[in-house]
Design a protein that fits this description.
Helices cover 38% and strands 21% of the residues. It has 268 residues and is α/β, with parallel strands linked by helices. The chain has a 9-stranded mixed beta sheet with strand order 3-2-1-4-5-6-7-8-9, sandwiched between helices. The structure holds adenosine-5'-triphosphate (ATP) and 4-amino-5-hydroxymethyl-2-methylpyrimidine. This is Hydroxymethylpyrimidine/phosphomethylpyrimidine kinase.
């Protein structure tokens, strides 16, 4: 049996909707063996983030070493990295173990506004990690921080994608979840030559906790199987659409998406 393996380097969300939990559930649903290197523990639920406890840099490094020296990973995803020190150490390990299918989800704040990345770490993200990335998947506010530009129109988004590409990333996906003007949720992909658009019906719901993590994890799982970036984004878009649509309705705030919805609609 050919077993595909993916590693997520991210924070824990005790509420199970985002972070490492969303990543591992998504890998499993897409039939990829999931492994994890935890960067931080958050006490979190659908109402917000109650606590953030980063792990020592050595702990992050050792987890990546343990996985890489034995099991190996066909693709890697990074999520919440919290500090410049963790980012630099992760980038070193990615180079050392030649983990060259890398999806960077540049997580900065939780939906309720709690910071998951220290402000001074943005520079480290751009300098050390983005040049190693196969794909970077910012939402609109993250793309604004990374490019230092305001994004209002689709033209602004295309320009931001070009600037992110110039930092050395191979593919840029700027997600449209935060652009709630229209009837559609449009994600844009730039590969240095052309733009592709992934469009779905925008769903009216407050239960979108962890959509970004889930979407990037689905891209990672598909890259682990050897799919092209375009194919991977297409599957990820269908996966997240199903997960938002088939609402679980749990928790008292911004609830999680349904990670098993895609299997009911699309698999076999
Ligand atoms: N209301 C919605 N209806 C349909 N698709 C959506 C909706 N909201 C987000 N999406 C899709 O979900 C994916 C994630 O986008 P989004 O911009 O919400 O990420 P994010 O802000 O990083 O998420 P989070 O920080 O909660 O993890 C994208 O594919 C986007 O198009
Ligand atoms: C641990 C963690 N990672 C990422 C996000 C972003 O959704 C979150 N809320 N929590």
């Amino acid at each position: 049996m050919n077993v595909y393996k993916a590693l997520t380097i991210a924070g824990s969300d005790s509420g199970g909707g985002a972070g490492i939990q969303a990543d591992l559930k998504t890998f499993q649903e897409l039939e990829v063996f999931g492994m994890s290197a935890l960067t931080a523990v958050t006490a979190q639920n659908t109402l917000g983030v109650q606590g953030v406890y980063p792990l020592p840099v050595e702990a992050v490094v050792q987890q990546i070493e343990s996985v890489s020296t034995d099991l190996g990973a066909d693709a890697v995803k990074t999520g919440m990295l919290f500090s410049a020190e963790i980012i630099q150490a992760v980038a070193e390990k990615i180079k050392q173990f030649q983990l060259n299918r890398l999806v960077v989800d540049p997580v900065m704040v939780a939906k309720g506004g709690a910071p998951l990345l220290q402000q001074e770490a943005v520079h480290a993200l751009k300098t050390y990690l983005l040049p190693l990335a196969t794909v970077v998947t910012p939402n609109i506010p993250e793309a604004e921080v990374l490019t230092n530009r305001t994004i209002r129109t689709l033209d602004d988004r295309r320009e931001a994608a070009k600037r992110l590409y110039d930092l050395g990333v191979q593919h840029v996906v700027i997600k449209g979840g935060h652009d709630d003007d229209g009837e559609e949720a449009v994600d844009l992909l730039y590969d240095g030559h052309e733009f592709s658009y992934f469009t779905s019906k925008r769903i009216e719901t407050m239960h979108t906790h962890g959509t970004g993590c889930t979407f990037a994890a689905a891209i990672t799982a598909e890259l682990a199987k050897g799919r092209t970036v375009k194919e991977a984004v297409e599957t990820a878009k269908a996966f997240i659409q199903a997960a938002i649509e088939d609402e679980l309705g749990i928790g008292h705030g911004h609830g999680p998406t349904n990670h098993w919805a895609y299997r009911k609609t699309f698999v076999r």
